[in-house]
Design brief:
single chain, Arc Repressor Mutant, subunit A
Length: about 120
Amino acid sequence: MKTSDGMFARIRATIRKIPRGKVATYGDVAYAAGFPGAARQVAWALHGSGNVLPWQRVVGAGGKILLPGVKGAEQRFLLRSEGVAFIGLRVDMKQHRYAWLMLRQRKRKKRKTQRT
């Protein structure tokens, strides 16, 4: 198994955790999967997964739909059908961004224990 296969598996598992009605940016998914700065790899993992993942829940920074043409329109349609609101052409991130709280809380606890 190639290293990228393991990375893509973790990224795909992370994407599956995004609940209906919520979205995450490519960067959020990379960070939550344990690969900060690997937003481009998130796109590659989605590209190679077919339609078995909730791909529509992954958006660009600031809630921007990055897919062109028909695929972008499909993503917008699927998100709206899940109750996701838009402000203009962007997802209302304040309302619909998925917070990876468990990951952030664990990191904070580690930092606090390291300081003491």
